[in-house]
Amino acid sequence: MRPEKSLPHSDGFSSADDYVEHLLRYVSSTPVFQILCGGVHIMDFYTSDPGLFYSVVPADWQPFLLDRTHMELLDFLLRDNVDDAADAATGDSRVPPPASLVQYVRDIRRFSLQRQVSSKAATEAAALPRKITMGMNAKKIHEVTQFSAYVDRLADAVSEAAPSTPITHLVDVGSGQNYLGRALASKSLGPAATAPTKRRRGVVAVESKGHNIAGAKGLDMMTGVMAAPARPMRNKKLYQQMLSEKGDTARQTEKTRNRIARSGVEKGDCLREADATETADSVESTRANPSKPPAAVVVDLRSRIEIAAEAYAQLQQKQRDGRQQESESPSPTEPNNLIQYVEGRLENGDLAHVLNQVQPLRHNDDAADGNVPCSFLTVSIHSCGNLSHYGLRALELNPAVRAVAIVGCCYNLLTERLGPPTYKVPGMRPRPTLQPINGRVMREEERRDPEGFPMSARFASYAPAVDAEVGIRFNITARMMACQAPANWTESESESFFTRHFYRAILQRIFLDRGVLQRILLEGQADGEEGAAVSPIIIGSLRKACYSSLSAYVRGAVAKITTQGNGDGTATSAENAAVRAAVAEKMASLTDADLEDYSARYGNARRRRELSAVWSLMAFSAGVVESAIVADRWQYLREQQALGLVRDCWVESVFSYDQSPRNLVVVGIRA
């Protein structure tokens, strides 16, 4: 089960610890990497002259970058042999790549974790039944198929290594529509689950949004993983007649007496609600033995309010007697307790409030009481931001959690453990993470969040030199770029989002020229000095027609801001109202001729190539940012291993990168 390497690093490093040491040194002391991973923002691209490209890209790189189309540049950065590319450029009279750029490409490739899925893992994942994949797209089917098989193998391995505490439940943090949990539960109901060595495992789906849970339960019933609740058969008209006539058969009409006789209801009787499992069992029994008469369907004629009142009274009585309804052991043939939903928002890795609600599973081959002590494996596919940290910390904070397997994503949603992220890069002034002037007031970047990045003590305390800033920091721009997948960009897709970025960068310059926005002068900086930041403004998504030209984009963006305010239309603060008023006033005189002038100044192929080249370099370099975030999570588990809490930990790829780029799972097993 365990891969050969604890981290999927390149072969140039002797061990995972050797890789981490060199990685820390590189990200904390390489200026060009720090500029491209956090020191550049697309909205500042044209707010200075001659432009951001010339101030952040090394001078010897610029001719080569401007000589390549964006797809040629991506091939050079990601796929080509860089030495062969230099030789080929010399032969065809094109600008050759400079030696410093070639070395930079080698370094980024060397420090980026390998993302290939092992051939063994790819072949062991059997296809899921069609009913289980209901509602999934192709990407989700691939993820759920691969990861459910991986989790199943991991749970088996952990259970075999510690037979006294086998994994009984799989806790899915951030379950959403519970696609993963449904696939895992179906494995406990399938033919493989009947093997002597295979145990049924429950799934605990933890989700903060109630509508997701409601939708997931509906899919559970449609796919047969969870039995549908019994729907009592009622005849309200008959019941009301019985109540009004008070059992006086003399006053009942012949039609009423016949209806009562057909329903099997004596006067004044109210039969109990039909049990779903009993009804299902009787149907199966009839199919197996057609000569046997089917069991009579039991009908409840009471209203829903009366049934609910009786059920509530019974529950209160059981609580008074110390016998909670949820503690009753289910029938050995009842699959309903394979999936349990817990609604709530996690704030840290302490899952005690979740685990205390879990019902033990009953197995036919267990002791007389039929209950097995609960032992948990915490899992998640693409848990956003800090939720990945909560899942990993559950191994430390909850003794009943025996292992974790977490695939993270949305690194831009991580909070900062070390405070506001600011790069102090040689040649560049510290650039703060600016808050949009028409957005909600956000304090996430200002608070020191102990649950945030970095998790490990080594990453949090590392300093390349005695007088250097302590700790590894990535601001939100760097972490957002780490969510990109440049190896998957097609020519049409990249052209589309480069166009969107291009229009947005020009609009920022228009806002600045017309006084909608102001430059942010940092301490000791003079007006007009290179590197001054410009306050951002939220626009959000626009109609597809707005991206047909620069004029259409600017008109669409201005119309949206003046009517809705910030990007999602929710901010109602006085600052947002001021932004709307400023945009309406100062953009009103913008003519089509003005827009044509901006298009002529910035819309030529050279200026567009400047932007696409820097964006491609940022996305390429951010592969190391993602690798550092994943390595930090592995390092945290290694530190728990040094304390004797964790027996083993590793990172490996579980998805095909071309289908799901966030494909690295972090695994930890309790000692």
Automatic annotation (TrEMBL):
<feature type="compositionally biased region" description="Polar residues">
    <location>
        <begin position="279"/>
        <end position="289"/>
    </location>
</feature>
<feature type="domain" description="Methyltransferase">
    <location>
        <begin position="139"/>
        <end position="416"/>
    </location>
</feature>
<protein>
    <recommendedName>
        <fullName>Methyltransferase domain-containing protein</fullName>
    </recommendedName>
</protein>
<feature type="region of interest" description="Disordered">
    <location>
        <begin position="315"/>
        <end position="337"/>
    </location>
</feature>
<feature type="compositionally biased region" description="Basic and acidic residues">
    <location>
        <begin position="245"/>
        <end position="257"/>
    </location>
</feature>
<dbReference type="Pfam" id="PF13679">
    <property type="entry name" value="Methyltransf_32"/>
</dbReference>
<feature type="compositionally biased region" description="Polar residues">
    <location>
        <begin position="327"/>
        <end position="337"/>
    </location>
</feature>
<feature type="region of interest" description="Disordered">
    <location>
        <begin position="244"/>
        <end position="295"/>
    </location>
</feature>
<dbReference type="InterPro" id="IPR052220">
    <property type="entry name" value="METTL25"/>
</dbReference>
<feature type="compositionally biased region" description="Basic and acidic residues">
    <location>
        <begin position="264"/>
        <end position="275"/>
    </location>
</feature>
<dbReference type="InterPro" id="IPR025714">
    <property type="entry name" value="Methyltranfer_dom"/>
</dbReference>
